[in-house]
Design brief:
Length: about 425
Amino acid sequence: MPQKPPARRRRAYVSIAGTTQMHLRSPIVVALWSAIFPGLGHLLLSKYIPGFLLFAWEVLINVKSHLNQAIFYSFTGQAELAKGILDKQWFLLYFCTYLFAIWDSYRTTADMNNNFVLAAREDAPVTSFIVHALGFNYLDKSSPAVAMIWSALAPGAGQLIFHRLMVAFFLFLMWIIVVFQSKLLPAIHYTMLGQFEQTKDVLNQQWFLNLPSLFFFSIYDAHVNTVESNKLFDWEQAKFLRREYQNRLFPMPIQSKGNGGDRMYIISNFEHTIKLETAITAVEMKGIPKEHILAVPMDKKNAGGMLFDQVHSSDGLSMLDIPMILAALFALFGAIYGFLLNWGPVIWGLIGTGLGAGVGILIKLYTTRKNKKKQRAQTAAVFLLIACEENQAQMVQDTLWAYSALGVSKLQLDGQP
């Protein structure tokens, strides 16, 4: 029997270094993140080496050319100071790299979208759990909101939740460097004490203006990739259930042993979680043969109009792309003009964050309601049909309830016309 050739394209790869996956992305959104800070768009695409190189190159050229300092002087009306501080040789070198990062991230996103479509059609299997001498990695479901909160508290922490290890380590490292170089922590201390002039004096403007892009990218990346990681988990589990628990020997229709109707079906439904597989194995260990368990994963209709994706209803529509980009831009301008205003750059940066995020959410709500009919968020479920004896029915029902079944019912057929 000829051996099946290996898959040409896989939609995901699980390794000890992390989970890397393809999914559909907006080329414009990726290009905008590259415009905010070269390298960020490539990190969204999991192109780590180009992303790290472009990011490091941007930091080097920015510092050498004093670009952020020149931006600050330009937007505060101090044009002569901006001209005097800007190193023209480094700035001209920066300009070419900046345009390349935007163009390449846009082009790569379009190419990867095409490859994802082909990978989805090929439907090649993905390893869901690996063990290595350095540890282990596995597919799991997480809450996008929790990942966002951890990324807001410590950029990079949200990426650790869904095993995006390389980006997590890089964001941790860069955040620590930028925070210490910008003197953000002493500035926060003075701001909380109401000493706004000391806040302005202590901050290093050159490094401080890098904070908004890095901070909001970390939150956005955590949200988007948690959603996609949840969808990957659902897809892989559905493939497993169809392969292992749709046996042609499943008794249907079930036949009664006699007039007593002592054989029956137990019907239940679950969300896609690890508890579903645990429930199935628990039932098997209690005497139900594998051939008597039928699992039917249901396809979910795409739901539009959700403001935030949830752990069990991830439709892949990121409602945070425009809000996070605008929050980063407004926070930048708030920080710049905060040096001229009474409350200082920290508070005005936070005010800019709120304004930018609010405007972005309003834009998203408007475009969502305009372009799509609002639908109620739907959860893809898995239906289990278990054939068992009458004396096993209570045990099966109790086991399913113990592992978070959404509903359990009994169907008894007596074989009578």
